[in-house]
Amino acid sequence: MKLVHPSRMPASAAARTAAFAVALVCLFPLTASADELSVPDIETRIRNSGNAVPPSALPALVFPESAPLPAAVAPTAKPEVAVPESAPVVAAETAPAVAAPASASPRAEATGLSGFAELGGGSPGALHAALSLNQRPTDGTVGFGIDLGYSSADGYGGRSQGSGWFDRETDLGLVLDSPTGGRPWKASLRVRDEADGLQGTSEYYSLASRSAEWSLSALALGSAGAGFSVTGLFSGSLWASFAERPGGAALPAAQIGDYDGYRLEPGIRFGWKRSAFDLSLTAKYGYDVVADEGELYALRADLEAAWKRDAWGLSAGVGAFYDDEDGLSVPFAVSAFFDAPGSPVERVSLSGGIAVGRMGVNDLARENPFVYRAGLPAYAADWNAILSAEFSPAPEFTAAFSGEFRKSLPDRGILYLTGEIVPDGRVAWTRAERDSLVTKGSVTWKRSVFSVTGTYAGEWLDRLGRDSLQSLSGSLTVSDPDAPLRWSATAVAGFALDDDVLPRLALSASVRPLPRFLVTLSAVDILSLAAGEGRMLDDLYQERSGSVILSFRVDFLPGGN
To answer: What is the pTM of this model?
Structure first.
């Protein structure tokens, strides 16, 4: 394995400025509001970096996992900005992380304009704001989603504000959607600005990054329903990362270079549908450029077939993939599923094959913003086998289980953080082949005003830089039994079973004194707050922890009701 260390001088600031003149036109979509009390959401950064905290609701814990490479076609769970396909990195957190409140309002079913505005603040120096507007498309009209979000905290562990113990994130985005008419199409744009204080580890003050991502698909020929169709695809991104220092300060001895680049991925999909059958042929070309590093190109073609009748479904696909760094591979996938919502066995699925996915240093930066940024992306590939099942033996009881095995193809390993600190204060990364077996299980019981959930997640093979592989978490929610919800309270706890790190505990309570006005008070990572212990990242950087936040939200209902 080869560690990545500093090896280059800063790239041109002019290139960064030009790239982001384009990015400033973007807006970032989240979900719209509803006429009911939003249920909490707790967000986690994989190594507990603390940067990324936003809008409001109650907690729903996210657990550590080995973040498998995505299949060729990755379904999205909610309407949001589509980003270029990439492979998530291996998770490496020490315990399930509990972040500040995040808004969780589904898109309204009505066709009128809907949304919400929210403002909140608290300790340590925390502030967040969000604005969301959505218009569902009707026949002959274009639907849209516009979202603005801001989150920041300054003064970790009682440090003075402005001294470098801070994080900040701003998101802006736009989604346009026209699913009806003769030529359905969908477009999305997103721009993000982030900064993380270097906490005295460097003569620089902070690390900053900016990125823009876009995606477009449009039916060019045929029909979106039965028959033959041709769809054009285009996605891409551009980014710039750099270190900030006080004005007039001398250039540090251990310099942190800029990291700038862009990615383009045009493609075309030929499809044919008839009755229960769906056949498609997709071709894509990927082109990456990183300033002062070089370029990487890739070609991919996939032939896929699917059949579904009633609750049963089968699919199979085979492709050819080539990139100029690692050469040729042959991804394929076979899957079968049973899907019967409302029955005692709601869903069972089994799939396997070879998956290929792109991953780069920017993916690692989502895990840890202090990663050393250099190098071109890579295309990792895995043998994989995935089994999942969901059960509902009684109306008030549900259970789910999944098992996932991944084994890297030779010389097609994943990127992951090593935890080693390089001279400029950032975290080194490397590429390695993996053997991963992840199991997850959860049970949920709901009755009257109560909802209780317990979840276990564990990795049984590779460690790959992680401090903890096994975790247990649980949540208890008590809420208004009537609709629409007027009040709710939730407690969430997360434990690392193989590490002595302090457990995470969050409490949140919401009340709606007026039909369109919501007040939420959240205490995040209470044990850290009570003990006066700051959580550390790579034993060097302190993350945001021990927060108390009060937020206020106004909902805009469809039709102005």
So the answer is: 0.79
